[in-house]
């Protein structure tokens, strides 16, 4: 049916259509604007749910593919498609997109219509990045999301909002220009090999490129993606952007925008440049930067006096784990990295919501201003505790399984790397427990805090879906790993063709999985695999 065949277009452009609808509303109708923006955000999430129901986890190729000529003179097409990696990131985008709109109900008063328009346009840009199967289209969406984020920080941010917005814009722009050079090299190199001008991502991924050329393109992509993650030492724009951005901007920035960098490594750097990505020099370089980011981000978080800046630096540490998992180049590392990206979006997005709730009441983020809040805000303290435990990796919550699988994959490649990574987990527990103890426990000395109200229903509803998702992943992660199995296997086979042949345990598991799938498909296959065909 039409909806099934064009579901990606529907999911991607629905927020943009909603933004256009908001433009026709009178700017003074604030209640109507708020209600309609939240309805649009919620429907956008609902529209994305059929992707989960219709997604075939046993298929390695892109699904829900839509393709049409766009600019044939340069070989650019309107091509969309998703795999398991894209699917999880799209769901994260639609969930956090709605919750970030909901959390802004009472915190945004000025230029309300423009705020929601930019939030919805930003969502379309991020969804386009995760769906694009054409490099030209991907780059358009990559740049489109830059503009609304710039205005969200620059208009509705804090006292140093212009500085933070310009810094964010310039950093990202530099990375984008270098990434464009890499894209153009692949574009013209493919023409030299095939005589065809195309930006088609699967076609460009199938090319064979000399190692030296791969290394230069990898470097161009590395700068663009590392700035977006951000990896050490390209992280300096992030704390400023987070501190000055409104709560909704911080939630979407930490929850989704940063994942565009790690997604770029997984979608382009590894499959398109496998020899460069697996070069020992590159692996050592990337792992070293990741480990430095893990330790540095955690140590700097321990020294913060600003609540929001602490959470911002924790992102540098957590995303260090994500890039570490990617560049150990084995199934556990990569699958754990992708799941940890989802976990980071859930936990850190929720932490920024927690900060936003208290900032809306006190208009300060200084940790020293608080203490003993659990006595007057018990529900808030309980929600904060669960989210903090999720972020630090407590078993039964989402953070544990992601970090555990990443470290399992890292240990397989290098025990020293894994040992250094564990240090980051210990430090992460230290700064989060320190933050919780300083703000929630102790005596309620500050008179300004004695009249604070606990969370209301709307505020609780921005946090509870994320907490439920955190428990789901922590207690039953199997469906998520099942979705990731085929795309991860495809990446590993591309970057390390001999991996499965030289790892008998993994190979045996793949064999049994294949037999199980065959048994489900045909009775004869089940009997051949050692099963019993059903009686007729």
Per-chain topology:
Elements lengths: L1 H4 L1 H17 L6 H25 L8 E9 L4 E7 L1 H19 L9 H20 L3 H10 L1 H11 L4 H34 L6 H5 L5 H18 L8 H8 L2 H11 L1 H14 L1 H4 L2 H23 L4 H21 L3 H32 L15 H15 L5 H16 L1 H26 L16 H19 L2 H18 L3 H4 L1 H18 L1 H6 L8
Antiparallel strand pairs: 1-2
Main features:
536 residues, mainly alpha, two-stranded antiparallel sheet, globular, disordered C terminus
How helical, in percent, are the residues? over 70%
Structural class by sheet pairing and helices: mainly alpha
Q: Can you tell me the overall shape?
A: globular
On the 0 to 100 scale, the average pLDDT is: 88
The tally of strands reads 2
The major β-sheet equals: 2 strands, antiparallel
- In terms of DSSP E residues, the strand content is under 5%
What's the SSE pattern?
HHHEEHHHHHHHHHHHHHHHHHHHHHH
Q: Helical region count?
A: 25
Q: Compute the separation of the termini in Å.
A: 34 Å
Rg calc: 23 Å
Q: Which blocks of ≥5 consecutive residues have pLDDT under 50?
A: 510-536
Q: What strand line-up does the widest sheet have?
A: 1-2
């Amino acid at each position: 049916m039409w909806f099934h065949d064009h579901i990606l277009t529907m999911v991607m452009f629905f927020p943009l259509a909603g933004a256009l609808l908001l433009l026709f509303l009178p700017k003074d109708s604030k209640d109507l604007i708020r209600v309609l923006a939240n309805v649009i955000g919620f429907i956008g999430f609902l529209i994305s749910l059929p992707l989960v129901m219709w997604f075939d986890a046993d298929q390695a190729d892109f699904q829900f593919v839509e393709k049409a000529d766009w600019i044939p003179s340069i070989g650019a097409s309107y091509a969309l498609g998703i795999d398991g990696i894209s699917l999880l990131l799209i769901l994260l985008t639609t969930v956090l997109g709605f919750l970030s709109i909901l959390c802004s109900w009472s915190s945004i008063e000025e230029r309300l219509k423009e705020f929601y328009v930019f939030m919805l346009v930003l969502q379309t840009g991020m969804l386009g990045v995760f769906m694009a199967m054409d490099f030209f289209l991907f780059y358009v969406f990559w740049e489109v999301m830059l503009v609304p984020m710039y205005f969200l920080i620059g208009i509705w941010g804090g006292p140093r909002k212009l500085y933070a917005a310009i810094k964010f814009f310039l950093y990202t722009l530099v990375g984008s220009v270098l990434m464009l050079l890499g894209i153009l090299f692949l574009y013209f190199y493919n023409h030299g090999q095939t005589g065809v001008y195309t930006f088609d991502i699967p076609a460009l991924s199938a090319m064979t490129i000399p190692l030296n050329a791969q290394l230069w393109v990898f470097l161009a992509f590395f700068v663009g993606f590392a700035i977006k993650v951000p990896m050490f030492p390209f992280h300096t724009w992030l704390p400023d952007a987070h501190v000055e951005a409104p709560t909704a901007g911080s939630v979407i920035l930490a929850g989704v925008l940063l994942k565009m960098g790690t997604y770029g490594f997984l979608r382009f750097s590894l499959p398109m440049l496998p020899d460069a990505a697996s070069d020992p020099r590159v692996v050592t370089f990337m792992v070293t930067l990741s480990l430095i980011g893990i330790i540095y981000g955690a140590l700097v978080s321990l020294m913060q006096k600003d609540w929001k800046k602490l959470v911002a630096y924790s992102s540098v540490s957590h995303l260090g784990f994500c890039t570490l998992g990617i560049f150990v180049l084995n199934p556990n590392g990569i699958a754990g990295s992708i799941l940890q990206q989802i976990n980071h979006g859930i936990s850190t997005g929720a932490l920024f919501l927690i900060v936003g709730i208290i900032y809306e009441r006190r208009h300060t983020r200084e940790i020293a201003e608080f203490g003993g809040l659990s006595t007057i805000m018990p529900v808030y303290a309980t929600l904060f505790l669960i989210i903090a435990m999720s972020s630090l990796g407590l078993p039964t919550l989402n953070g544990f399984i992601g970090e555990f699988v990443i470290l399992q994959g890292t240990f397989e490649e290098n025990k020293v790397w894994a040992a250094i990574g564990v240090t980051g987990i210990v430090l992460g527990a230290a700064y989060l427990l320190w933050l919780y103890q300083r703000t929630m426990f102790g005596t309620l000395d500050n008179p300004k805090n004695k009249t604070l109200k606990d969370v209301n229903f709307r505020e609780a509803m921005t946090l509870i879906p994320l907490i439920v998702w955190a428990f789901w992943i922590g207690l039953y992660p199997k469906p998520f790993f099942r979705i990731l199995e085929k795309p991860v296997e495809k990446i590993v086979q591309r970057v390390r063709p001999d991996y499965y042949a030289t790892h008998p345990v993994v190979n045996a598991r793949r064999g049994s999985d294949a037999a199980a799938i065959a048994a489900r498909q045909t009775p004869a296959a089940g009997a051949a695999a050692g099963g019993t065909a059903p009686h007729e």
